[in-house]
Specification:
By secondary structure, this protein is α+β, with helices and mostly antiparallel strands. It is 20% helix and 24% strand. A hairpin with a 6-residue loop joins strand 1 and strand 2. The longest helix has 16 residues. The chain starts with 31 loop residues before the first helix and ends with a strand.
């Protein structure tokens, strides 16, 4: 019988260093910018207490603050979990005492550091079920990816890390249901969290739902240089180097709302374009011409993405090779086929050097050899759909899947070259595969477009009267495009031109969805503003989809 170690005592003893790290742990002090950031994070209670003290009491408090600065907290970026299995999960953290340090090392010493971790069945860690040590390697940004196994299926757990005298926040995670279970799945889907667009209030409200899993559909960061016209401003220039991308992820991870949602549930992530560059496609940058410089940039961005996401080691990139498509089974209820719609795609159809991203029509889009997913990923998806016996097929992915004619008139106009309309043969193959195998309970989950859509996927988009064989739920952005417009009249032409698009909304927020054996309930959640913090949340629209009867029903 495996011996279960006791919980970590408080206060913590000094961390014993292992053979790769023989010197006592001493974190280098943060610079002035990190001190200012720490001051901003001081709680209101601490501020009130400090303001009420005078004389010796105030001097004592000042001494405590100086002592804290000399032994800074390495868990400024929080913790996270992800890629769950029915007996385990990935636990993540990245050590940083100065998250925005210019060299990208987060103010950490350039040597390996031992990190202890624990998993418990209770929040107080009175029942620790797994524990161990991991190495935070400077070569990987002092990130830690612990692959925990030996856990019970369909169970919630709590976890934490320790470095020296510092304990990380305690967070929740869970395992997948067993293969024969019929457990309901409650997920929230998020996308497009642009720091400059506003505050990540949607993350806070999504965390309060206590979902089973968070599905991140891309654009977790934005790579551009600072824009003084935004609600907030990115520090630094456009991300190109590894240090640039590390600092940008640190900026986003340091947000309280980001950490709150990471601490609430395991994440299953994929990316879109802004994790590297706007509208990149495979080996092609936005401008369309492959270069050695863009290959180096891709390698830097892929490495930083892995360092900052709770992914398994099988996803650790090697140069510009990065395994991101993967599959999760929620018992008999659902199979989740997570797609990578960027790394393997052909250049966008009718590419004109990146000056426009819409076309009236383009014969190139019907070329059967053109692909969004690449041959290997397409074959993997087709095989997975053919073999699946789950009630629901869920495809979390990056870009607009359904046909979308964006302008009035008999001709097809304003089709997006960056979405699946520009890769029609590949889209039709995937849709036809699930339909041929009777998977009419298929849900495509999408981000990217900064608006919420509810779409019915037709057997033939060229025939509006053809049967519905699945649905697409598009989550709006968390912040991108700013506050948005309620009841936006500019969206009416899209509804009129596309009968299968049943609803569009132009406010910020997230998607909350629950899949059961009987049906799917999708709730589009919005906030009225992101340019000011703390906005309330509203259920903007609810749709139901009965199992076996594809189609969207309001209410």
């Amino acid at each position: 019988m495996r011996r279960v170690p006791p919980p970590l005592p408080l206060p913590e003893p000094p961390l014993k260093q292992d053979d790769h790290d023989p010197t006592p742990l001493r974190l280098i002090a943060p610079d002035e910018g990190a001190n200012r950031a720490r001051a901003r994070r001081m709680s209101r209670r601490t501020f009130v207490v400090a303001s009420s003290l005078t004389g010796a009491a105030a001097a004592s408090l000042t001494g405590l603050q100086v002592a804290a600065a000399a032994d800074p907290d390495p868990f400024t970026l929080g913790v996270a979990s992800g890629d769950p299995s029915d007996d385990g999960v990935v636990l993540w953290t990245r050590l940083a005492v100065d998250p925005l340090a210019e060299d990208g090392h987060g103010g950490m010493p350039t040597r390996k550091i031992t990190v202890e971790w624990q998993v418990a069945s209770d929040e107080k860690f009175e029942s620790v079920v797994r524990s161990g040590r991991a190495v935070a390697d400077p070569a990987w940004g002092h990130s830690v990816h612990v692959e925990v196994d030996g856990l019970e299926a369909d169970r919630w757990y709590h976890y934490r890390f320790r470095v020296g005298s510092h304990l990380s926040p305690v967070a929740r995670t869970r395992t997948l249901p067993a293969a024969d279970a019929t457990t309901d799945l409650h997920a929230v889907a998020v996308s497009c969290s642009h720091y400059e667009g506003g505050w990540f209030t949607a993350y806070h409200h999504a965390a309060e739902e206590r979902p089973d899993v968070v599905l991140e559909l891309g654009d977790y960061i934005y790579e551009g240089a600072g824009n003084e016209d935004g609600t907030r401003t990115h520090p630094g220039s456009t991300c190109m180097s590894l240090a640039d991308y590390r600092r940008r992820y640190a900026l986003y991870h340091a947000e309280a709302e980001t950490q709150e949602l990471h601490h609430a549930a395991p994440w299953i992530v994929t990316w879109d374009d802004h994790e590297i560059q706007d509208n990149w496609a495979g080996i092609h940058p936005k401008e369309g011409v492959p270069t050695d410089e863009f290959e180096r940039r891709r390698a830097n961005a892929m490495r930083a993405y892995y360092e900052n996401m709770p992914l398994r080691k099988q996803s650790r990139p090697s140069g510009v090779k990065f395994q991101l498509f993967r599959r999760f089974s929620w018992g008999r209820t659902a199979d989740l086929h997570v797609l990578d719609t960027r790394q393997y795609r052909d250049l966008q159809a009718c590419h004109d050097g990146g000056s426009t991203w819409w076309f009236t029509d383009c014969p190139e889009r019907d070329d059967p050899d053109r692909t969004m997913l690449g041959t290997r990923q397409t074959d993997w998806l087709v095989e997975g759909l053919a073999k699946s016996e789950a009630q629901w097929q869920i495809l979390p992915q990056g870009v607009f899947f359904s046909h979308r004619d964006g302008a009035p008139g008999p001709e097809e106009e304003s089709l997006s070259v960056d979405g699946w309309d520009g890769y029609r043969a590949n889209r039709n193959l995937i849709r036809d595969t699930w339909a041929e195998h009777g998977h009419l309970n298929t849900t495509v989950l999408t981000g990217d477009v900064h608006k919420a859509f509810a779409n019915e996927i037709l057997a033939d988009f060229d025939d509006p009267g053809s049967p519905t064989v699945g649905i697409e739920l598009v989550t709006t952005s968390v912040t991108s495009a700013g506050d948005g417009v309620a009841n936006d009249p500019s969206l009416q032409p899209v509804l009129e031109e596309n009968e299968h698009i049943k609803w569009i909304d132009n406010l910020r927020g997230y998607l909350s969805a629950t899949w059961t054996r009987d049906g799917l309930t999708a709730r589009f959640m919005t906030v009225p503003k992101v340019t000011t913090p703390g906005a309330p949340v509203n259920t903007e629209k609810v749709f139901h989809v009965p199992a076996g009867e594809p189609g969207l029903h309001e209410g």
